[in-house]
Design brief:
Blueprint: H1 3-16, H2 23-30, E1 37-44, E2 57-64, E3 71-74, E4 84-89, E5 112-115, E6 120-126, E7 138-144, E8 166-167, E9 171-173
Antiparallel strand pairs: 1-2, 2-6, 3-5, 4-7, 7-8, 7-9
Length: 175
């Protein structure tokens, strides 16, 4: 193979992400969607001011990894039907039950935000509504999926609505 052909192939691999891995399985592991939008999750201890509140929370970050496109997303990201689903599992794989009854208001235009290229939004999901066991390890992940039937239109006509679905990376913690 001549040098010019090698440079063209190398340029294609760098430009277009060729690399031999299955992109669908890599997306599921890393919390990236096929569109370049990603969601990440981490556990936050002592969420109160100056660490006085010992409760745990999940920090959820939705990031627009697209290089040239702004997207319209539901930014409230509360654990409500239709936007964020929280999945907590104990060591044996059983789902951790919720204590709270949620009756969230439907999303309004003020709940939506435009995320430009590289922009992100982060929300804390406090875990007081879950019956966390006293010991053991908990595995958590969240799923962003906007299934609202009539989301408000973006302020700029050409900004697409991002509906997902997209799954976060799993995190493990002790209650």
């Amino acid at each position: 193979m001549n040098r010019a052909m090698l440079l063209v192939l190398l340029g294609f691999a760098v430009c277009c992400g060729a690399g031999g891995a299955n992109p669908q399985s890599a997306d599921k592991i890393s919390g990236h969607s096929e569109t370049g939008v990603s969601i990440s999750l981490k556990v936050v201890d002592n969420i109160g001011a100056r660490g006085l509140d010992p409760r745990k929370a999940l920090e959820v970050t939705l990031r627009n990894g697209l290089q040239a496109e702004t997207i319209w997303v539901e930014g409230r990201m509360s654990p409500s039907p239709g936007v964020i689903d929280v999945d907590l599992r104990d060591e044996s794989g059983r789902r951790v039950d919720e204590n709270c009854h949620r009756n969230p208001a439907p999303s309004e235009a003020a709940d939506y935000v435009m995320l430009g290229p590289g922009d992100a939004i982060t929300r804390l999901l406090i875990l007081t509504c879950y019956k966390l066991p006293q010991s053991g390890r908990i595995t958590a992940h969240v799923r962003y999926k906007n299934v609202e039937s009539s989301p408000p239109p973006a302020p700029l006509e050409l900004v697409p609505l991002f509906r997902g679905p997209i799954n976060s990376n799993p995190v493990t913690f002790s209650p």
